[in-house]
Amino acid sequence: YGTLERRIAWVSTVGFELETIGAGGAALFEGWMQQERATRGTVTEAEGWNALALESSILKVLGSEDAYRMLIEAAKGWGGYGFSEDYPMATLIRDHWVDTIFEGENDAAQRLGTLFKSLIKRSLGGKIPPLVSTDETWQAREAYLAERFSDHPLLPAMRLAEASKETVNLAAAALMAMPDAINLMHDHSRVQHIGMDLADLVIAAFVNHYVVARALKLADHFGEDGAAIAIRLATVSVYQRDETVRNTARRLVNAIYADRSTGRDEALQRLDALDLRPPIDVLAHRAKIGKHM
After folding, report:
1. Cys-Cys crosslink for 212: which of 129, 138, 161, 173, Cβ 3.0 to 4.6 Å?
2. What pLDDT, on the 0 to 100 scale, is given for residue 272?
3. Over the stretch 92-105, which tens digit does the pLDDT of each residue have?
4. What is the pLDDT of residue 181?
5. Overall pTM surpassing 0.70 (yes/no)
6. Which of 199, 197, 241, 213 is nearest to 54 (CA)?
């Protein structure tokens, strides 16, 4: 029973993430459209999706891959029946796997194609302000969170979500500081490793931001007790992604600097300084999520 409970908790957490970023992406698109219509008058939906290509790519990659993983986990709960065509799980798995290929295969077309190139384009154009957060800015955010949400159950997840954003800032800044950054696209082997890792960091920061924001909004509306499950879901979501984010960031920094030691040690030290994981009983959170669901 414990294994099934853990599986239910994992599937519920991923479902919470997908539902959240879907609504967040739609709100982002509508907000962009309204702003452009107010300033320009006429704007098409195609222009909106082109402007938000990075966010659209994140939704496509995460939506297709995590939904497929959810189905695999759910099928395990069915045992051998999960493989039988007499039951719905096998059909769902077969039909949804192709979503990772349709509309651009997730690795080559999405991570390396749309997502990585969109990030580089925005970085060079200064459209992600600011790419590099100063230590003072980071310390100011830390001080604000500690003062404003000192007793809030979401504070640990909020700090980790901010740390994941800063991780992207550090990685992107290191990439832009490369002497051969402009020529990186011509080194296909290297760009694939760097692009895949940077894309995964951006996806993680995007999800962390939205799940924490949603849980915080629910807590403000229904109170901490009324939003207890949402708070647990957001906390587990951010925590179970954190170790992967840190390992990916270190690998990425080493790949960016390659044989150059100048700047690499400093970047790694700043990454280590972002290790803000306070002791949280994630297993207890998962158990309560599993029982509730």
Report:
1. 161
2. 81
3. 888 887 888 877 77
4. 54
5. yes
6. 199
CA–CA dist 72, 77 (Å, integer): 9
How far apart, in whole angstroms, are the C-alpha atoms of residue 115 and residue 107? 10
- Separation of alpha carbons 224 and 162, rounded Å: 21
Cα gap 154→160, rounded to integer Å:
10
Structure tokens at 73: 């986990």
Q: What is the pLDDT of residue 183?
A: 56
Rounded to 5°, the CA angle 53-55-58 comes to 110
SS (H, E, C) 88-154: HHHHHHHHHHHHHCCCCCHHHHHHHHHHHHHHHHHHHHCCCCCCCCCHHHHHHHHHHHHHHCCCCCC
State phi, psi for 151 to the nearest 5 degrees.
-110, 10
Is residue 289 within 8 Å of 12, Cβ to Cβ? yes
Q: Which residues of the chain have pLDDT under 50?
A: 129-132
CB of 168 within 8 A of CB of 226? no
Q: What would the two tokens of residue 200 be?
A: 């995964």
Integer Rg of the chain from CA: 20
User: In which residue are the tokens 């096998």 written?
Assistant: 90
Distance CA 240, CA 282 (A): 8
Tell me which H or E stretch contains 160: helix 155-176
Can you tell me the distance from the alpha carbon of 165 to that of 50, in angstroms, rounded to the nearest whole number?
23
Q: What CA–CA distance (Å, rounded) separates 62 from 41?
A: 33
Please measure the distance between the N-terminal and C-terminal CA atoms of the chain and give it in whole angstroms: 14
Please say whether the beta carbons of 290 and 179 come within 8 A.
Answer: no
Mean pLDDT of the chain: 79
